[in-house]
Design goal:
Helix 2 runs antiparallel to helix 3, helix 3 packs antiparallel against helix 4 and helix 4 runs antiparallel to helix 5. The protein is built from 7 helices and no strands. It has one domain. The longest helix has 24 residues. It has 168 residues and is mainly alpha-helical. It starts with a helix and ends with a helix.
């Protein structure tokens, strides 16, 4: 029971960081808050024993740091994606559910490399959150699962506001 509570505390801290990231006006600031989010996700998934998620979050942390410094090359995106897939599959202890963090992290790695603005990053985040929502609910990371649902809706609202009300 202690690990469930501790894992959910880390999950809640991750939720707060990711929520703040969506409000940021530039890609670098958005990624900076996602770095903090990922640190807490690593802790949460470790405590809740979803080892493919620990690996994907750890590699994603390194990827986000590289992207933060605008050094995410095609080669680096490939290496991070390959690491996520190989190590994530090897350590997957959750069956099909364990594939979802792998898919989400590879998708987001590709998007970090190819996207040019925060609006594209928001779309990438929405799809990423849907994969994590299923995973987090399954491993009982309830703050994260609730956040995944709310934040994907919140991000969609921001996409709408940015596109239609701010007339990009």
């Amino acid at each position: 029971m202690f690990s469930l509570i501790l894992g959910n505390i880390f999950s809640l801290l991750a939720v707060i960081c990711l929520g703040i990231s969506v409000l940021k006006k530039n890609k670098k600031s958005l990624i900076g808050w996602q770095i903090l989010d990922t640190v807490f996700c690593v802790a949460s998934t470790f405590v809740l024993q979803s080892y493919s998620a620990v690996v994907t979050n750890s590699v994603s942390l390194a990827r986000n740091i590289v992207a933060y410094y605008n050094q995410l090359s095609r080669f680096m995106a490939f290496v991070f994606s390959l690491l996520i897939v190989i190590v994530g599959l090897y350590l997957n202890n959750r069956g099909v559910i364990g594939y979802l963090p792998i898919i989400a992290s590879v998708q987001y790695t590709i998007c970090l490399y190819i996207t040019k603005n925060e609006q594209q990053m928001r779309w990438a985040l929405v799809f990423n959150l849907w994969f994590w929502l299923i995973h987090d609910a399954y491993i009982q990371a309830y703050p994260a699962a609730i956040n995944d649902a709310i934040l994907s809706l919140w991000t969609l609202i921001h996409i709408f506001i940015h596109k239609f009300l701010k007339k990009e």
